[in-house]
Amino acid sequence: MLNEILSQNPNDAFARYGLAMEHSKAGEFERALEEFGKLLSIHPDYTAGYFMAAQTLVTANRVDEARRMLVDGISSARRTNNMHAQSEMTALLDELKSS
């Protein structure tokens, strides 16, 4: 269903995010990260995309990339005044720095 929505509207942020999440849950990390990349290139302030992409990267043992994604996500959260997302991403970044 998400692919159908995206075939009609490739810029649909919610469908793109949902598809990335489905790939991530299925362990298809490269496909998930590709979708997160598309999402964030079209919608650079879709803050949840950064956080979930970072979590996917951590799960795929790509911690350095996850840290960079979180730094970008924190910037997005600041731009959009999303203090909750900023706090979550800062906490994860701090956790990754200490590991």
What layout of secondary structure does this protein have?
Layout lengths: L1 H7 L4 H13 L3 H14 L4 H13 L3 H17 L3 H16 L1
How would you characterize this protein structure?
- With about 100 residues, this protein is mainly α.
- The protein has a single domain (about 1-99), classed as Tetratricopeptide repeat domain (Serine Threonine Protein Phosphatase 5, Tetratricopeptide repeat, Alpha Horseshoe).
- The protein is about 80% helix and about 0% strand.
- It has 6 helices and no strands.
- The protein has helices at about 1-10, 15-25, 30-40, 45-60, 65-80, 85-99.
- The longest helix has 17 residues, at about 65-80.
- The chain is globular, with a radius of gyration of 13 Å.
- The mean pLDDT is about 95.
Care to give the gist of this entry?
The chain contains six helices and no strands. It has 99 residues and is mainly α.
The major β-sheet equals: none
> What is the CATH architecture assignment?
Alpha Horseshoe
Fraction of residues in helices? Answer: over 70%
Helix-strand pattern, N to C? HHHHHH
- Count of DSSP helices? 6
Please compute the radius of gyration using only Cα atoms.
Answer: 13 Å
Terminus-to-terminus distance: 39 Å
The domain count comes to 1
- Round the mean pLDDT to the nearest integer and report it: 96
CATH topology: Serine Threonine Protein Phosphatase 5, Tetratricopeptide repeat
Low-confidence segments, given as residue ranges, are none
Count of strand segments:
0
Shape: globular
CATH H-tier superfamily: Tetratricopeptide repeat domain
